[in-house]
Amino acid sequence: MVIRIHSLNVSCAGLCCALGSLLAMADAREVYPLTGSWDYRFDGGPSEKVTVPHTWNASDAADGVKGKNGDAKSVDSGVYKRGPAVYTRTLPVAPKPGKRYFIRGEGASIVSEVSVNGKPAGRHEGAFTAFCHEITSLLKKGSNTVSVMVDNTQRDHIAPQRGDFSMFGGLYRPIELIETDQVCIDPLFYASPGVFITTRSLDNSKAEVEVKTLLNSAEAKGDVTVAVEILNKQGKKVAGKTVKASAEEKKSLEVPVMLAISNPVPWNATKNPYLYQVKVSIRTEDGQTDEMVQPLGLRIVSVDPGRGFVLNGKTMQIKGVSRHQDRKGKGWALSPEDEEKDIRLIADMGADGLRTGHYPASTNIYNLCDRTGLIVWSEVSNVNLVRDTPEFRENNRLQAREMIYQHWNHPSICMWGIFNEIGHQPEASTKGVDMEAELIELNKFVKETDPTRMTVGATNQPGRKKLNNIPDHIAFNSYPGWYGGGPETMKGNLNGFIRDHASRGIAISEYGHGASIGMHENPPKRPSPTGFWHPEEWQTHAHEINYKCIKERPEVWGSFVWNMFDFGSAARFEGENPGINDKGLVTYDRKTPKDAYFFYKANWSPKPTVYITSRRFAERTEKTVPVKVYSNASSVKLSVNGKAVGSARPDELKRAVWPEVALKPGVNTITATATIGGKTYTDSCKWTLKPGKEGEKGSERYQDPSIKKYK
Predict the structure, then answer these.
(1) Do β-strands 643-648 and 666-676 pair in parallel, antiparallel, or remain unpaired?
(2) CA of 664: how far to CAs of 415, 623, 645, in Å?
(3) N or C: where does the chain have the smaller number of CB atoms within 10 Å of the terminal CB?
């Protein structure tokens, strides 16, 4: 294929006119959502109506029910519902002459096959990236039926092979029908937008931006005019260029364009997540058109081993969380509103980083992160083990390619993760497998595919130097206070990590502790991670100590709390709810932020915070109890039953503490008040003292009556 690119020599007025006509005509691409009602049949069973996005594991993949042999269900056991299902519906429009049609799905777990009118259109293997198949030749006049077979059966050649999370089956992300002209911006290139934007240079006076557009032609059409313009936040054009591309064969075209922005505004994370828009419009000689709009955030990132994460020349320590994408009663089949609430909870807490553990998130999540200013670690789903078979390697590269190309343009994504806890809990099937060799090749592949972003890996094995030196930067999953030593041993862990990787800097990719909002203890004692008793007070205590250790070390370029939300893990049989990993800062249903959430909010967010901890410790047996308030005020006043107790200044971790506060028998109203920025903020809760129920002197426990202990 020979491609000739040449700029159009026109006056400014002529160029504006040409661009205006291109933009005015750009209604050729139509996108028809296929969300809503589908006929659904699991494994040949009876047909039923469901609403897509949909998963058949909304309940059973997080209910903790044991299998027939008494073993708790696991990600790869197949005890929860795993197998094939078929979704069927009629397409919403009849095909039009001269048009092309594509089916694009954002996510189907794990394998999907699309057919139209009973004829195969394409197959996709991978639960977390999009697929796109052309169906033009399969359509007939009038009504057409599309079917999507989805199967969440575990397969040895598709990651993830293991993991502490459930693999919800279903057509769980949005799906759509795309209608274009014969020549279009390519939707088939790994289901990507077909437009790839790269910041080549950035300083205070100028940004140089490269925009590559992929064109797909069903038939040779001669010259194609490609107009690219960059719009600022107000919609005003700040850069533009029009070029022509000519193909001498009936093949795809790659059209690169360089543009310059004067006095650019950088994308500066949560401080100013400034977004431009790149609008690409095309027109053929016979009037065929298409258009694509993509986000542009101008930013340059790196890691300084001694000073931390560097964004646009300024150092910072990323204050991050990790997120699994399931939710109580919905599994993975979330609405845009559900996802928006997740990101809002993260942003309101003051976090500025997100790790999408352990797989790529939806496009909507990345869009929200772009707009909110969260710095994102997005990763392929290599969890615990990788295999050395040709089939696994091929699919692993495919999942990496799709993640990179589909999400290339999101400024929030600053790094690609390539593995998590590889070699953890080794098993017979991996004996003799050189997993490092596969990951070395994968890292090289990712760097060649996208040279503009760093690679990262998450490890829980500090001694595996070969593994930990593979990515550009290594991060550690470390759980002092939950697994291993006490919470204060985070300090020693960090010392060792930093010593061993002094030339690269390190991050903490996971740290956290389980908690039930209905279990309380004073003073908190370290619980068994695998036990039933997970008091909320221990989670806050351990997070306070862990984070203090992290905060004090600038060599730690970022940390990511595990986890933002409780999530489904069918193999777990612990805590208040079997089948749930309860390390979240917010409950599985998103209704209740735990006390630890407000610890981070007081430390991370500039928003005024006054929050009484242990507020759900509803029944007390000790007549004198400690009261702790998280606040970013300079001083907090405390009263009990309307009587002043006194004021306390929050410490460096934003904790105002009254060690001994007297309660009266019966109901007590605890009130905390602070003035921030000239305004008064108040929080209160009620504790009931029931003398005579105390156990060991100086200690007390409370369990919400609604919690039933399981066997």
Answers:
(1) unpaired
(2) 55, 7, 14
(3) C
The C-alpha atoms of residue 531 and residue 240 are separated, in whole angstroms, by 62
Output DSSP code: residue 618: -
At position 237, the amino acid (one-letter code) is K
DSSP 161-177: SS-SS----B--S-EEE
Whole-angstrom CA distances from 328 to 64, 165, 289, 673 are 13, 14, 44, 34
Element (H, E) at 339: helix 336-348
Burial of 140 (0-12, 13-18, 19+ CB in 10 A): exposed
Mean pLDDT for the stretch of residues 641-666: 98
Categorize the per-residue pLDDT at 427 as very low, low, confident or very high, splitting at 50, 70 and 90: low
Report the SS3 class of residue 225.
Answer: strand
- How far is 369 from 250, CA to CA, in rounded Å? 39
pLDDT in tens, 665-680: 999 999 999 999 999 9
Report the chain's terminal Cα–Cα distance, integer Å: 68
Contact 657, 630 (CB under 8 A): no
Per DSSP, 71 falls in state: P
Q: Which residues contact 518 (CB under 8 A, 6 or more apart)?
A: 576, 616, 703, 704, 706, 707
Closest CA to 362 of 342, 345, 348, 347: 342
- Burial code of 445-468, b = ≥16 C-beta within 10 A, e = fewer? bbbebbeebbbbbbbbebebeebb
DSSP for 492-534, please give it: HHHHHHHHHTTTT-EEEEEE----BTTEEEES--PPPTTSS--
Classify 417 as helix, strand or coil: strand
Confidence band for 433, pLDDT divided at 50, 70 and 90 = confident
- How large is the average pLDDT for residues 143-154? 97
DSSP conformation letters of 378-400: EE---BS----SHHHHHHHHHHH
DSSP state, residue 137: G
Catalytic residues: 421
The 10s digit of each residue's pLDDT in 83-125 is 999 999 999 999 999 999 999 999 999 999 999 999 999 999 9
What is residue 179's predicted lDDT score, i.e. its pLDDT?
Answer: 98
Contact 294, 329 (CB under 8 A): no
For residues 113 and 85, the answer to whether their CB atoms sit within 8 Å is no
Q: How many CB atoms lie within 10 A of CB 585?
A: 28
